[in-house]
UniProtKB/TrEMBL annotation:
It holds the Pfam family Sortase. The active site is at 148 (proton donor/acceptor), 217 (acyl-thioester intermediate). SUPFAM superfamilies: Sortase. The lineage of its organism: Bacteria, Bacillati, Actinomycetota, Actinomycetes, Kitasatosporales. GO terms for molecular function: hydrolase activity. InterPro entries: Sortase (IPR005754), Sortase_Class_E (IPR053465), Sortase_dom-sf (IPR023365), Sortase_E (IPR042003). Keywords: Hydrolase, Membrane, Transmembrane, Transmembrane helix. Residues 1-13 have a biased composition (Basic and acidic residues). It comes from the Bacteria. This is Class E sortase.
């Protein structure tokens, strides 16, 4: 067998190299379809991620700004003798809710529980389906409130941190209303309006009194059910010249 010359070897290998390899062949239709589908999934994931960021972060920023601006108006009105008398003035907000267990500072309270109201990062008192009784009226009843748990300020995000015996304080121009939590319902139907009753019998109370009810969505990041916290008025303190908060807010 004759030996192969260098020239013959170069011609042979050069010819082989000139032929397209299998790895360089164009992918088939199935492979291309899988590739396109994968790219679409990545794009959809990015869009979904941006939407989540918008819903859970940016809406909080916008809502907090709106709530802060509105709260400043209320406090400015109070400081200049405007914004009364109490329950009759609901244009800018009726007062501030303080719940130390939620660690969210003061929450402006306005009239209504529609998304248009709550999306501004405030709590709203019910006008429908059961009308809330405002504490400034002096009447017995249920001061029922709602706020978002996630997004748009998420003012009730930490509602699950509230325990029985914890204080809830409502601040108005002239008075501090100090409530004490006595019962909690971690989950109930969103159609259960009995939790808003003037005498909230589901909480174990059977007689008229001065109650407060906090409501929001649950589980977190859903609106499937409602989380309920009930409190009862313990005392009322008059606001002094320095607006010194009650002891429950000074710890």
């Amino acid at each position: 067998m004759a030996a192969t010359t260098d020239t013959e070897h170069e011609e042979h290998t050069g010819a082989a190299a000139s032929r397209p390899s299998a790895a360089r062949r164009r992918p088939g239709p199935i492979a291309m379809a899988v590739s396109v589908f994968g790219e679409l999934l990545i794009t959809a994931g990015l869009v979904l991620g941006l939407f989540v960021a918008y819903s859970l972060w940016w809406t909080n920023v916008v809502a907090d700004r709106a709530a802060g601006k509105q709260a400043d108006k209320v406090r400015d009105d109070w400081a200049h003798g405007r914004g009364g008398p109490g329950a009759l003035d609901t244009k800018n907000g009726i007062g501030f809710l303080h719940v130390p267990a939620m660690k969210n500072g003061e929450v402006l309270v306005e009239k209504g529980t529609s998304n248009k109201i709550l999306n501004d990062g405030v709590a709203g008192y019910y006008t429908d389906p059961v009308k809330a009784v405002l504490p400034m009226s002096g009447k017995t009843g249920n001061f029922s409130l709602a706020a978002h748990r996630d997004g748009h300020g998420a003012k009730f995000h930490n509602i699950d941190k509230i325990k029985k015996g914890d204080p809830i304080v409502f601040e108005t121009k002239d008075k501090w209303y100090v409530y004490k939590v006595y019962d909690i319902l971690p989950e109930t139907s969103r159609f259960n309006v009995k939790v808003l009753s003037q005498v909230p019998k589901e909480s174990g109370r059977k007689k008229p009194g001065h109650y407060i009810t906090l409501t929001t969505c649950t589980p977190v990041y859903t609106s499937t059910y409602r989380y309920i916290v009930w409190g009862e008025l313990e005392r009322v303190e008059k606001v002094n010249a320095d607006r010194t908060p009650p002891k429950e807010l000074r710890s």
